[in-house]
Each structure stands twice: as structure tokens, then as C-alpha cells.
Amino acid sequence: MREIKFRAFIKSSKKIIDVEWIDFKNKQITYNSIDFGGFGIVDHSSFEDIELIEITGLKDKNGREIYEGDIVRILDDEETNEGWNEEVIFHRSCYMAGDENLLVNVYFRSEVIGNIYENPELLEGSSA
């Protein structure tokens, strides 16, 4: 069975967090956050203040989980690090790395280098 897991981008704080619970009836998520004393606290955000990010079920060449919205560097040659950067998107019932690459065909030679929320500049001039 495929793992179902989400992260969320909190628009007001511009942070990405791991989602613990999704409440569709009340349209909010629950997540753990750390207060200034280092203690974990439970917090909530409404659907209006978040962007849900789903796991693809795949891991990059380093074993890091790949989520929708991640930016991956697809390597042509691992020795020279030549390649290009692409956004992971869900398109026509498939996870894609950009518009042309099925993620399932390139994940094993890809590396998560950021995401579109915190590092959009990684997509500018992404060719090797």
C-alpha cells in the first residue's frame, strides 16, 4: 500500500511543516511546532492559510523523500554533477519532474535540492 503523507506550507509564517492530522470537516490541519522553550506544542492552521504538499512515494538518490513542489536536480552524469533542475508536479495522474519527465523514470538519479516555496530561484536558469 502506498504511504499517504503530507507537509504543508504555512503562508503566514512562510514555513513548511509536517502535517499530523487533516480535518476536512472543519477545514484545518494539526501539526506539532516548537515554542521558544524547546517544548513541542500542538498548533492548527486553516485551509486558507496553507498549501498542502503530498508525498510522491519515491525517494531521491540519497534516500530523501520527494514531495510535490520539491525541486530536484536530475543528473546526466553523477561524476560531474551535470544536469538540470525541475519542479515536481502532479500532472495527468502522474508525478512529473517538469513537463516532460515522469518522476518514476528519473528519481533514482535525482537529488532534492529545495522546494518552490522556499527556493524558487533554483528553477531560474537551471540547465547545466
Explain how this protein is built.
This protein is mainly beta and 128 residues long. The protein has 2 domains: 6-50, no CATH class; 58-123, YopX-like domains (SH3 type barrels), CATH 2.30.30. Helices cover 3% and strands 54% of the residues. It is built from 1 helix and 12 strands; from the N terminus they run E-E-E-E-E-E-E-E-E-E-E-H-E. It has one helix at 103-106, and strands spanning 6-10, 15-18, 21-23, 28-34, 40-46, 50-59, 65-67, 70-77, 82-91, 94-97, 101-102, 110-115.
The largest β sheet comes out as: 5 strands, antiparallel
State the domain count: 2
Poorly predicted regions are none
Number of beta strands: 12
- What's the overall geometry? elongated
What distinguishing features does this structure have?
mainly beta, SH3 type barrels, 2 domains, four-stranded antiparallel beta sheet, 54% strand
